[in-house]
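Running co-folding for zinc ion.
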Amino acid sequence: MSHAVITLEEKQRAYAQLHEVKALFSQRNWFAGTSGNLSVRVGDFSPEQFQFAITASGKDKSQQTPEDFLLVDQSGKPSEPTSLKPSAETLIHCEIYRLTGCGAIFHVHTVFNNVISEWFWDRKSVPVDGVELIKGLGNWEEEAHIDIPIVSNFADIPRIVPEITERLQHDIPGIMLRKHGIYAWGKNAFEAKRHLEAFEFIFEYVYRWELLNRSR
Ligand SMILES: [Zn+2]
């Protein structure tokens, strides 16, 4: 299948957005040890054919270089000649785009999302009750209750994909990998960032709340 043409402007816009988010998240120490990855979709979308810009594998995300991003297609393969490697976790981005048609996906590893994913692993989701920041996820219900799904983490990334397919919920713009991190998405980079920030606030809240309750 040949790739649809992406204009230089579209590509540069996506790279500029990734650059900005990467610098900001890096200041928050959200990319420990080159972990994490960010992507922004470009051009037309159908579940069978799309392209996105994504962070290249193994780069120190606190540095800005001319080789930070590349364009890949719906199967996670580079759609332009390049010696850069897409992140190993690109296949997870592919599946989330295919299922949701969203515009951007941000993935970070943090201590709070790791601890919380393990703490609630038995129930395979993180329960959250009535926290104001649930509104940051686009849910405006009063005293909303949500369950943020957690899936298995395997070293072999393709093994994770079927669980994403099965567990992704269209009313919750994020999914956690056990003791690994969160994938959050939105219709564009602005919304994906808002969702990720809301999730991370919620994880810290839940962590502290669970801890307080144990010492009661
Ligand atoms: Zn990861």
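Result summary
The mean pLDDT is 93.
The longest strand covers residues 37-46.
Job closed.
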